[in-house]
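Researcher: Batch entry, complex prediction.
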Amino acid sequence: MGVVNVTPDSFSDGGLYLDAGAAIAHGRELVAQGAAILDVGGESTRPGAETVPADEELRRVVPVIEELAGCGAEISVDTSKAAVAAAAIDAGATIVNDVTALRGDAGMASLCAERDVTAVLMHMLGNPRTMQEDPVYEDVVDEVKAFLAERVEAALAAGIAEQRIWVDPGIGFGKTADHNLELLRRLGELRELGRPLVVGTSRKSFIGRVDGSAPNRRLGGTIATSVWAASRGADVLRVHDVADVRQAVALASALLE
Ligand code: PMM
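Model: Structure tokens for the complex:
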């Protein structure tokens, strides 16, 4: 899953792709690099980020999705607003990647059920504005797993087909560096949820916590953690650097065979 951020303030590509034309070109480039899914987002979820009104988010993502639909990858929309998801589905998106796991908008679960799209349910403690203020867990893996199990049940109860439900531990969302490392170490435990597992470590700050690197110097850490996650059963890796991560995963799995 390649990341196409259409935001002026995402921590990793700092508004480079705010312009729709640049975002479309970037999405096509990620498909050429081998992305099977493009995750198009118009609202930054980085720590401390402010929310974006639905009409502004729509203005950012819909033209990009219209152009990228049919370009060889499935389109995912990274949003927690049902109005944005509905317009994105009309424009060609088939996956709704909701960092609130369908808790952010009362209309989201029924929309996913009615339109029969895949819903990515991600764990987050708190909200993006406050989530990095001293997150505490007794056992981060047990708590993330219990949360995701509860959200899968809620999605099923709303009528979303089981095969349309994916789960994600939400690396960096209300977690310290140690919490993120523990989740990756014990990623196999989340396989027990029985749903496809999405993992996004790309350029995140816990990599910098380990080695002091800046966001634009975290490719090595992104590759290491992505290869690790794949070897522990991740089905989808959400990354900015599709070609490099694909190559690393291909070589690691060839060696493991
Ligand atoms: N991370 C970000 C945004 N959306 N969605 C899912 N499912 N999983 C993630 O780990 C995730 C996400 C933040 O990263 P960005 O600002 O670089 O897009």
